[in-house]
Amino acid sequence: MFETDVLIAGAGPAGLLLAAELALAGVRTTIVERLPQRPPYCRGFNLNSRALDLLARRGLADGLVAEGHRVPHAPVTGLPGPLLLDGAATDHPFSLGIPQTRVEEVLEARARELGVEILRGHDLRSFTQSADDVTTVVHNGQFGRTLRSRFLVGCDGGRSTVRKQAGIGFPGVDARWYALLGDVECDLPYGPSAGPDGRSLFVIPRPGYVRIVVREDAPPSDKDTPVTLERLQAQVDTVLGLHVELREPRWLSRFGDAARLASKYREGRVLLAGDAAHIHPPAGAIGVNVALDDSFNLGWKLAATVRGTAPEGLLDTYHAERHAAGERILANTRAQVAVEEAGAEPWADLLRRVAAHPAGNRALAEIITGLDACYEPGGHPWLGRLAPDVPLLVSGAETRLATLLHAGRPVLLDLTPSGSFAAWSAGVPVVAASSPSTSDIDAVLLRPDGHVAWVGTPGAGDAGLAEAVHRWVGNVPVPV
Ligand SMILES: Cc1cc2nc3c(=O)[nH]c(=O)nc-3n(C[C@H](O)[C@H](O)[C@H](O)COP(=O)(O)OP(=O)(O)OC[C@H]3O[C@@H](n4cnc5c(N)ncnc54)[C@H](O)[C@@H]3O)c2cc1C
Fold first, then answer.
1. How does pLDDT run across 357-398, given as a tens digit for each residue?
2. In angstroms, what is the span from residue 396 Cα to ligand 1's centroid?
3. What is the Cα–Cα distance from 377 to 298, expressed in whole angstroms?
4. Which fold has domain 177-256?
5. 391-472 maps to CATH 3.40.30.120
6. CB 44 near ligand 1, within 6 Å
7. β partners of residue 463
């Protein structure tokens, strides 16, 4: 007896989106979350273009966009000007200001609506895995219990118990510096300032308070020592060279520039997603966004594996695709910090000049937000990339490409006037459509995450389509 098909540790952005994706595909899913309720403070405050594009493939972006605040550029560290998103490869050419806690609420509501069980106040303590299952011990503060599942996914943050217990390495570099964060009230003007010792102080406006970020003058002897208001006050006073009173602390914390990447995203029946798989310097404000990206990639692959329809090796493409993405994220965020620290060094000027050039600026925006994600480069420009949300006419009704993906299934989009690909419907859902934006395409095989697995160009027929279907959809009937 399995208590659940997939057990997820952690109800942050990664765990909640993954759970919703699995439940959408009919997979019984349970989340165990250590905290009895969501904390009152908020870490992140943005969704980037890539995350919005992905959420739109499930109909989840519009509501958030209506609530949030649009900014036409991507956050970046170390470069003087903004990274503009106008003309970037996205359906959402803006960053959305919205609290991480609000995104989590929306994802939690969706997960619950789809039948996910969320056990708050339950700490994952240990697990063992066999060839067939994972047996996990969770504790609710009073009692321990075991849960047997087919798979376990660690979405349990940077200090992931799941990662450690699975014996998965976390190579990388330790933090060289730490910054204090304080959500407080005070009379400081918004914006950055620099102290006489070169240390920076940021005062970021938040609703009803400010977020202060200041580098510590020396690494703490123990980074887990709780941050006090006195400590933050002393660091702020030193940087400013005067005393400005900090009041009403809502949240005091510390973060550093450590960068680490799990050596594997899968060990047997145990997988990792989000911060559990990678930590990096806080440049570009991408943590939530990358966590969502991981889960969106993993959800449909794990669901197909649990249901027994997955082609051989499908689940391992999660590591192949997202570990490589993790490597790029560490490189990008570390590069941003290095440029910031380089100051007037001539080598850093090169990147600044690239950022000042319109095409270079757009390329950097696409790299830092992950919009450049291409899992299988080569051939047609759409191949391996997230298919753009082009307008479509289906059975006389106007729709869009992203809408076809709301059910979380693969789609073979047939754009030929005669419906030449109809016979493939025995193996994969076929949607016959026309579009003004796709004259060089006869048909496209879309993975459930919207990435393009195959493109049929005029005159090429269905060459290569059977292989793509067998690779991404499964061993299903294909026309002979
Ligand atoms: C100060 C700060 C500002 C940030 N700003 C931004 C920003 O502007 N934009 C952005 O995109 N990102 C930002 N981030 C990063 C972002 O918050 C994280 O990258 C993101 O929350 C990662 O999501 P996750 O689901 O992987 O992990 P988490 O959100 O950390 O969720 C992990 C969950 O697992 C639970 N858990 C841990 N251990 C166990 C266990 N043993 N059993 C059960 N549950 C467990 C935890 O309680 C937690 O709820 C910021 C981070 C910080 C610290």
1. 999 999 999 999 999 999 998 889 999 999 999 999 999 999
2. 45
3. 20
4. Alpha-Beta Plaits (3.30.70)
5. yes
6. yes
7. none
